[in-house]
């Protein structure tokens, strides 16, 4: 029964195709390419349990979403659920494009990493060496700022400096003229304070170093070599894609999801929140984080990005106790959050939230496992995606899932949205 349920979910190559590939390989003398292995019984238990959770608790509470799940270093689930636009029959599929929101930050640190690998810059290069005409409240602190400080949110500036102006649709360049008014709460490198505007200064450094636009560097160094064919930056690219997931908000009076107009505010800070991508694109991004694309992101880059650069609190990481009972210490790396969970170290995570959209991504390179979740609403169920996946993964390791995966979920009313 279980095998029939999951036939459409697992990324298995049909026997007919395998035979064709074997024949072609024999004729050409080429080695047969490796194929994804079917899930083990334990992995299948996890996949079914997680699918039950998605159908019973997530699907009724958002118009649409997409999931990529990797176990044992291989993609075992790649699927869209629901609709791209409430009230329509446009199904979410593996190529439907979502806004990534702050998961975009992970590409910025990687873009810097590619330039470090080319010996064009170091993680400790000074901001002031590349970005001129930028004044700070304390000049001695401003002159000490490095790209590492920007990417780890350890600039020392007050949290969310001028995020309010992004919301008010003030241009990024105009916001930078006001940086001198932002107070430092500590010396650079000494405390954590999340940023969007300040983080985007890393993009300015990339442009100064490469002599190209920030977006072009990401395209050339990341999107293209990773085969992220649907990935893009900006509002124009998003609305120009017919297969896009329209953002939604819950209308309490009408008790239904309503599409919301996409504005340009966070697209103005592209290094912080400007990317659009499909779940297929994000599968490749997840594989790169697991060390599967060394020619693009080598171990030195990954070690820096995924390292524990600054201690944070669970609250600063938005890890709520009621969802994260087994959470250990929490940190921020370079463009990524890092935490310990259930006695294991080095889980790497980031979430995103812009108007009408939520995103989540988590992985553990040592375990060769990970998950990406993209949804076209602000559903609170997004908060439960990562901790539920990690709890089920732990239960799989402990052999606790097999007895609990036999029943199919009952669908709930969409009116039960949170």
From TrEMBL:
Domain Beta-lactamase-related: 61-381
Protein's UniProt keywords contain Signal: yes
Designated name of the protein: Beta-lactamase family protein
Signal peptide boundaries: 1-19
InterPro entries (alphabetical): AmpC-like, Beta-lactam-related, Beta-lactam/transpept-like
Source taxon at top rank: Bacteria
Entry keywords, A to Z: Signal
UniProt entry tagged with the keyword Signal: yes
């Amino acid at each position: 029964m279980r095998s029939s349920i999951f036939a459409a979910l697992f990324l298995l190559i049909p026997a007919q195709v395998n035979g064709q590939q074997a024949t072609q390989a024999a004729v050409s003398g080429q080695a047969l390419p490796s194929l994804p292995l079917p899930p083990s019984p334990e992995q299948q238990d996890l996949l079914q349990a997680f699918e039950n959770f998605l159908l019973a608790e997530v699907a009724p509470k958002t118009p649409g979403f997409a999931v990529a799940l990797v176990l044992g270093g291989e993609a075992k689930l790649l699927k869209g659920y629901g609709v791209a636009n409430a009230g329509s029959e446009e199904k979410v599929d593996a190529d439907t494009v979502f806004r990534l929101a702050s998961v975009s930050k992970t590409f910025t640190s990687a873009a810097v990493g590619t330039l470090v690998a080319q010996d064009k810059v170091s993680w400790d290069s000074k901001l002031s060496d590349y970005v001129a005409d930028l004044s700070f409240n304390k000049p001695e602190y401003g002159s000490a700022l490095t790209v590492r400080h920007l990417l780890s949110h350890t600039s020392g500036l007050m949290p969310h400096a001028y995020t309010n102006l992004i919301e008010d649709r003030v241009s990024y360049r105009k916001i930078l003229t006001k940086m001198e008014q932002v107070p430092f709460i500590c010396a650079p490198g000494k405390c954590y304070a999340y940023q969007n505007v300040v983080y985007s200064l890393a993009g300015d450094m990339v442009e100064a170093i490469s002599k190209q636009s920030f977006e072009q560097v990401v395209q050339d160094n990341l999107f293209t070599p990773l085969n992220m064919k649907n990935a893009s930056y900006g509002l124009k690219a998003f609305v120009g894609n017919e297969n896009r997931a329209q953002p939604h908000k819950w209308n309490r009076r009408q008790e239904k999801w309503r599409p919301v107009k996409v504005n340009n505010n966070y697209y103005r800070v592209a290094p912080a929140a400007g990317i659009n991508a499909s779940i297929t694109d994000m599968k490749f991004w997840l594989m790169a984080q697991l060390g599967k694309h060394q020619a693009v992101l080598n171990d030195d880059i990954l070690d820096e990005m995924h390292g524990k650069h600054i201690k944070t609190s669970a609250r600063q990481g938005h890890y709520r106790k009621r969802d994260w009972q087994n959470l250990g210490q929490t940190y921020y790396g370079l463009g990524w959050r890092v935490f310990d969970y259930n006695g294991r170290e080095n889980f790497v995570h980031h979430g995103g939230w812009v108007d009408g959209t939520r995103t989540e991504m988590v992985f553990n390179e040592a375990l060769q496992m990970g998950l990406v979740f993209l949804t076209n609403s602000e559903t609170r169920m997004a908060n439960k995606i990562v901790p539920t996946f990690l709890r089920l993964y732990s239960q799989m390791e402990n052999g606790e899932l097999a007895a609990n995966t036999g029943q199919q979920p009952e669908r709930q009313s969409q009116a039960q949205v949170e």
